[in-house]
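Notebook entry, structure prediction.
Reason for the run: the old model in the group folder had no record of what sequence produced it. Starting over properly, with the input documented here first.
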Amino acid sequence: PDESLTLNLSQTRIIPTGAIFPANKRNIAVLQIKSPLLAFLDSDAYPGEQWLNEIVPVFEDPLVGAVGGPNLIPKEADLYEKAAFDVVYSYMGLGFSYYLKKYREYLDEYKELAASNLVIRKDIFIKAGGFAEDILTSEDTLLCWKIRELGFKIINNPQAYVYHHRRKLFLDHTTRVYRQAADKAAIIKSHFEFKNILFLIPSAFVVFLIGGFVLSFVHTIFFLLYSGILLLYA
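New structure, fully documented this time:
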């Protein structure tokens, strides 16, 4: 999108892999890299001009294992793509932590960051076992959890942003969220901690929507309670 961001192809190596998961592709690339830092982007994302300049100095702290930042919507995105972005970063869409990734104005420690904007120490990446290759999405979530288990911090720098295209509303966006939710559920099941129960709140709300609708026909109290909560949510 900008001439200053154009890659020097003479210094760029492309490794054909065939049709495999993104996690497999990243792990293959890591084996070819000699740098102490690994920088990850998605194929539908591109960095801000100061992306690495904002990230690298954060690693002066030896306890920092990974650094990332916000995934902003590209200016060329259309209305449906921008709407999907607003859903993801709103309080009522996917929760407070996603909202704060976009709007905090200072360095802060996070539990996890997306692989679409993530730089990791290579030695820590290897100790953590790399990206899980048996899931399509949320492999970055699992890796970040392992990095924290090793005793290292994951830092979000709001100035280290990338521009990341989104799946458009409604079908593509919903399909993507469903896929991510299924993979996230599998991770939570295999690495259960009580604090991760917060991830179940959206699912509990869906159960309430279905169950509350049925109960609203049983008694007026249920109807008023159900209607009141829906109005509050709206």
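Summary: The chain has a mean pLDDT of 88.
The old model has been moved to the deprecated folder.
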